[in-house]
Write a structure and sequence with these properties.
The complex is a heterodimer of chains A (about 140) and B (about 375).
Chain A lengths: L4 H5 L2 H5 L2 E5 L5 E2 L14 E5 L3 E10 L12 E8 L4 E6 L12 E11 L6 E8 L5 H4 L1
Antiparallel strand pairs in A: 1-2, 1-3, 4-5, 4-7, 5-6, 7-8
Chain B lengths: L3 E8 L10 H16 L6 E5 L3 H4 L5 H8 L7 E4 L5 H14 L6 E7 L6 H8 L15 H16 L3 H4 L1 H10 L13 H5 L3 E3 L2 E2 L9 E9 L7 E10 L14 H14 L8 E3 L5 H10 L10 H4 L3 H4 L3 E2 L4 H4 L4 H16 L13 E8 L4 E9 L1
Parallel strand pairs in B: 2-3, 2-4, 9-10, 9-11
Antiparallel strand pairs in B: 1-7, 1-8, 4-7, 5-6, 8-12, 11-12
Helix pairs in contact in B: 4-15
The chains are: A mainly beta (about 140), B alpha/beta (about 375).
Chain lengths: ~140, ~375
Amino acid sequence: MSLSVPRYWREIRYRYRLIGERCTRCGGLYYPRRAICPRCGSRELEEYQLSDRGRIVSWTVIRNPPKDYERFAPYVVALVELEDGVKILSQIVDVEPEEVKAGMRVEATFRKIREDGTSGIIEYGYKFRPPIESKQDLS
Amino acid sequence: MRGVSIAGVGLTQVSEHWERSLAELFVEAAVKAVDDAGVEDLEAIYISNSGAPYIQRQLNLGAMMADGLGEAGVPAITIEAGAAGGAVAFQEGVKAVASGLYDRVLVGGVEKVSDATPEEIAVFLSMPEDQEYTAYTGITNFGLNALIYRYYMERFGVRQEDIAMLAVRCHEHAEGCPHAMYPFKLSLERILSSPMEADPIHVLECSGIGDGAAAVIIQPSKGVSGEVEVAGYSTTTDLTHITERPDILTFEAVRRASDKALRMAGISRGDVDVVELHDETTITGIISLEDMGFAEKGKGATLFTGEKLAEERRLHVNTFGGLKARGNPVGATGLYQIVEIVMQLKGEAGRCQVDKPEIGLAQSIGGLASTCAITILRRH
C-alpha cells in the first residue's frame, strides 16, 4: 500500500518536534495528542513540548518486520519513559541490540522512518539513541 | 430479554488453505452449523473478519457471504474488532435473538491470511493498533507482546521456561484435534530453541496464524436438558496506547469484561470448568488468566508448570490447543473458541474431551487487549 502524503503531512509537526497535549484542568500529559482528557474528561487541552530525553523501560528486537520496514531489520523498538513522565514507543538506533538495557538513557533524534518504493514519498520522524555526551559542550 | 442457546456449530481446520477462497471457507463452516442445527430460513447473519479489506481488497462481506450461503435477502452485518471480532459478532447476534428481533441467527467468522506475503501479514497483524504512533514505529503485534514479556519477567522474577510452559500444554492438548493447525506435541526445549520472533519471544511461543472459518446458529432457549445456553457476556475496551496505561502488565479490558460476564451469569470464577484463552503469545495468555482472576498477579505460569496443578484446580485451559496450536485465524478465532466450548459442554470433543464440564468461558482480545470480549456458556 502506498504511503499517503496528507496522512504523513498532518503529523509532521507532532512527530518532528515531539509535541503532545497537556490537560489544563488535571495536568495530564498525552502523546499522541488528544481532544479529550481520558482522565478527567476535560476538553481543554493545550499543546505540550515533550522532553526529548528519557530511559528505556522495556524493549524488543523486531526480526520479522512489516512491509516498508524490511531494510531496517533487525531493529530495536523500546518503551521509553521521558524525563517528564510521558511514555513513548520508538525505535532505538546507533546501538547494537545486544547492548540495549533496561534503564538505559536515550535521547530523541531525527531519522528516516520508511519510504514508498524508489519514487514515492519518504517519511521522517523520531527515533531514540544513546545520548551524545559532547552535545552539551557544543550548546 | 429471552434466554439464548446455541443450536448448531461448524468449523474448518485451521490451516494454510491455498486452494480455497474466503467465501469457500465461510460456506463450509456455515453449512456445517446449519446442518448441525437442522434449521432453515436464517433470519440474519453476523460475520466477523479482519483481513479481507487489506488482504483480499474485499468489502461488503455481509452480502458476499450471505449470497455464497444461498441466503441472499437476509440482513447480513460484518463486525470487526481485531482478533476479538468473532466473539463480538457472536455477542451482537445473541443480543438480537435475546431482544426478540430474530429467532434463527447465524454468526460466522472467516479469515484467510495465506493470500498475503509474510511482510503483509505482519502489517495486517499490527492493524488493530494505532497506525499513526504505534505501528508507525515498526513494532509488530508480537513485538508489543515482547515489551510486556520482558517487563513481566523482570518485575515478577518469573523465568521464561515457566511462561513458555503454556505453549507446551497447548500442544499437548491439540494432539488428536482434527481442526488444529499444529496437532502435535512440542517440547519446552524445542520451543525455546526456535528462532526469535521479537526478543525475548521465540517463534514457537507465538500463535499459529492461519486460515479458517467457524460458525454457530443461535436461537431462543428451549429449556431442554443438554442445551448449551449463553449465560453471560461482555465486551469492554481499554486505552489503545500501552504507553498511556498505568500498568502495562494489567489488561483492564480483560478485568472489566470478565467481572461483568461472571456477574451476568451469576457465577464465580471457581464454577468455570473450561477456559478458551486468547494466547496470542504465551505471555498474553498468562496475563489474561491473571486478569480474569484465575491466578494471582505474577503467578499465572504456575497453572502450567506443575504436572497436576491444572487438574487439581479443575480448570482446563485451551482444551484444543488454543491460539498457539489450534491456530489463530484472527477474525474467526473468537468463534473457534465458542464452538470449542460448545463441543466440550455437549461431550463432543473427541480426544480433547475433558470430564463432564458444565460451564465454559471464552476470552478474546483485539489489539494488545484494547478490546476484550468474554463469553460464558452453560450446559442446561
